[in-house]
Write a structure and sequence with these properties.
Helix 5 crosses helix 7. With 194 residues, the protein is mostly helical. The chain starts with a strand and ends in an 11-residue tail after the last helix. The protein contains seven helices and two strands, in the order E-H-H-E-H-H-H-H-H. The chain has a two-stranded antiparallel sheet.
Length: 194
C-alpha cells in the first residue's frame, strides 16, 4: 500500500461504520473504489462520506435523487399554494358548499313537484273537460302543455313559491282560460259550467 493510505477496513473504522456500510458507499459511487494495493486516502474518504451524509440530512441525497426531490418539493409548494387560494376564495364567498346547493335545489324541486302534481295537470284537464266536453285529446294536451310552460316560466322568473296546501277548486282559473279558448269564447266570456 502507498504511504499515507489505508485499507477499506481502517477507513470504515475511522468513519465509525461497518465494512458492509463502507462497501455500500463504494457501490453508490460516493467514494471512488481503489485497488487493494493502492489503498484509500483517508482525507478524501472522510470528505466524500461527510458530503454524502450532509446531502442526505438536507434531503438532497445523490445528484439523481436531487432532481426527484426538488420536483417533489415543487409539487408540494404548488399544492400548498392552490390549497391556500381555495381557502381564501371560500372565505371571500366565491364558492358555495355542495350541501347548500343541494338544499336550495331540494326546495326548488319540491316546489315544482307540488305545483305540477297539485295544481297544473289535474286542474287543467278537469276544467277543460267540464267547459269544453267536445275537445279532443290533442287540444287537451295543448292546454296542459301551455299551463306547464307557464309554470316553468314562472319558476325561471323566480316567482315560484312553495305551496303549503293543495289549491282549492276555484284556483283552476288557468284551466278555465284554456277551456274558453277551446270553445272559441273570447277572453271576457265567463263560462257557465256547461
Amino acid at each position: 500500500m502507498k504511504p499515507g493510505r489505508v485499507s477499506a477496513a481502517v477507513a470504515a473504522d475511522m468513519l465509525g461504520i461497518s465494512t458492509v456500510a463502507f462497501g455500500n458507499l463504494l457501490n453508490a459511487q460516493v467514494i471512488e473504489r481503489q485497488p487493494r494495493s493502492a489503498g484509500y486516502d483517508l482525507r478524501t474518504v472522510v470528505r466524500a462520506a461527510c458530503e454524502h451524509w450532509r446531502r442526505q440530512a438536507a434531503g438532497r441525497g445523490a445528484p439523481g435523487e436531487e432532481r426527484v426531490l426538488s420536483s417533489a418539493r415543487a409539487r408540494q409548494a404548488v399544492a400548498a399554494a392552490e390549497q391556500l387560494e381555495l381557502r381564501t376564495a371560500i372565505a371571500r364567498g366565491e364558492y358555495v358548499s355542495l350541501a347548500a346547493i343541494g338544499k336550495a335545489l331540494d326546495g326548488l324541486i319540491i316546489t315544482m313537484r307540488q305545483q305540477f302534481l297539485w295544481a297544473i295537470p289535474p286542474a287543467v284537464v278537469a276544467v277543460v273537460k267540464d267547459h269544453a266536453p267536445g275537445a279532443d285529446s290533442g287540444a287537451i294536451f295543448e292546454a296542459v302543455d301551455d299551463v306547464v310552460r307557464d309554470a316553468l316560466t314562472q319558476f325561471a322568473d323566480g316567482a315560484g313559491q312553495i305551496a303549503d296546501t293543495k289549491p282549492e277548486a276555484g284556483e283552476a282559473d288557468v284551466g278555465l282560460k284554456h277551456a274558453r279558448r277551446l270553445r272559441g269564447a273570447g277572453p271576457d266570456h265567463v263560462g257557465d259550467g256547461e
